[in-house]
Predict the 3D structure of the following.
Amino acid sequence: MSVATARAHVNIALAKYWGKRNAALNLPAVPSLSAGIEDLWTEAEVEFGPFAQDSLEIDGAPAEPGELDRVVRFFDLLRERAGTALRGRVRSHSHFPRAAGLASSASAFAALAMAGAAALDLGYGSAQLSALARRGSGSAARSVYGGYVEIGVSDEDDLAAVRVATAAHLPLDVAIVVASDQKKSVSSRRAMTSSAQTSPYYAAWVEGAPKAVVGIREALLARDFAALAERSERNCLAMHAVTFANDPPVVFFSGLTLQVVHCVRELRAGGVPAFFTIDAGPNVVVFFEPDARDAVAGALSKLGGTLRFSKVGGEPTLQ
Ligand code: DP6
């Protein structure tokens, strides 16, 4: 086979990956745990052949040079493993508005790893695909599975994510509050590097992360929604506290981000099973029990931004 197509989903971390232990191998400094999102995905068709150079087309248009560079480096790794000099041609499209700030290196590199390895007949299983995707983007290691997925820490290049529970174990719905349609001002990669180099809170974050992930995993496995909610929100705010103290400081929140944070906390205080999390941008993802849909939608729709609904899921597929 020299052409293959894969679809991988966006994942959102309940315990955040923030910081690297080894930048060359893209090994995370902390364990993390995420949930796959059913309706947000990237599909990539990868073809290897005697082309003059690697190329990347996103939603029908040639990619920006920075995006192409990252894919060329990823394909260099694939070529090394497959023992080939063939160049790759990628056509990808995403099932979410790219301009909405939901674009994800996780779904993109997971799809590229799956389709690229298949196109080059590498014969990889899920663990090898996850470790390969991690080299493209740390969070991508988790998008090789659907449902709830965890990745630990290691000094070895075979570090891969594992599935800790299917979506059916704890079926949660998701509301995504798109708080800004601007491209991120600072990439997660740059901001996490700066945290490691300049934030006085980084060491405490790295030290506390293993225990935090265990707490989140245990709450998930016990289907203890209240504990999962409190621990996930705290982990998210701790990550942002680290970046607030970067030099120069990084503030991913917008005014609307904070409005959603307060709204969700008030909802939960009033008995509505919902909690928030925020990645390296102003958008907020709200996880909630399906019965709480009306209460969550009613409260969030008063705040502004664009609301999208989905659920935890997101099994990747290879064609
Ligand atoms: C805040 O996976 O984008 O979304 O490995 O440098 O590509 P690189 O970083 P990336 O970082 C994701 C950071 C996060 C938290 C998370 O997804 O766990």
